[in-house]
Amino acid sequence: MTQRFSGKVAIVTGAGQGIGKGVALRLAREGADVVVAEYNPDTARATAVEVEALGRRAVAYPIDVADVAALQQMVEDVVAEFGHIDILINNAGVLRTQPMLELSEADWDRTISVNQKGMFFAIQAVAAQMIRQLPAVLREHAGLADVVAADLAGERGPSEEELANLAGSYGKIVNFSSIAGRRGRPLAADYAASKAAVISITQSAALALAPYRINVNAVCPGIVITPMWEQIDRDRGRLFGAKEGEAVRAFVNQVPLKRAATEEDIAGAVAFLCSTDADYITGQALNVDGGFEMN
What we know:
Blueprint: E1 9-13, H1 18-29, E2 33-38, H2 41-53, E3 58-62, H3 68-82, E4 87-90, H4 105-132, H5 136-140, H6 144-152, H7 160-165, E5 172-176, H8 189-209, E6 215-221, H9 227-240, H10 246-252, H11 263-274, E7 285-288
Parallel strand pairs: 1-2, 1-4, 2-3, 4-5, 5-6, 6-7
Helix pairs in contact: 1-11, 3-4, 4-8
């Protein structure tokens, strides 16, 4: 496998299991050092051990991403350990299967705090660090308005040649939305709302950070057999009396490619968005769903 992330440092939230773990290991296999940011310290350490077994540096970082102060502290700690941050994967999320009319305020608040608020403030904290890492000429003249203002003041901004020499990306951020963010879900209204917000925030952040050459994109997975989907299967069985596996099979039957995604399917899409091949892609929400949204 290529080492296209050699020398890069990636923070992956929710990397203790499931898709987040798969992404952390994929980035490590391609050369990245990884910060395993995870609520459960035991699973965080387990993933970090697997990253280290691939010959990469890893830090297990227990964190509740809904804690904004903790996110800022994480950035400071990562910079102290590695010196820089190049990639942020906002994967941490919670989901419960519950009829909309029975959803409590506490459940709503927790879902929004983790899936939406935590993602936003992780972007804010990490992007500020990415901007601090920029070459001075780009940091000082990040936007067209700055260049125009400099010209009007009789100051020389960067030339087209200088800017061309700075081409490329100076940070990659990938946020996890979901097919549920594209279409409402009566048994996961809070989750669907939070994932729709992820797409909107991704676009806003992409616009805000484009002058700094920081790319911000999202992925929208469909059905992936992870601990989260196993819980969905159990919850739907409890609500509707379905046998184990029936709920997942019913969803998979709606996928045009007739299979669930693997963690590697999702990790491959994320790795692409983090690579130089995606330097001219920003503000996009990429479905990785086997065509599920079309059905």
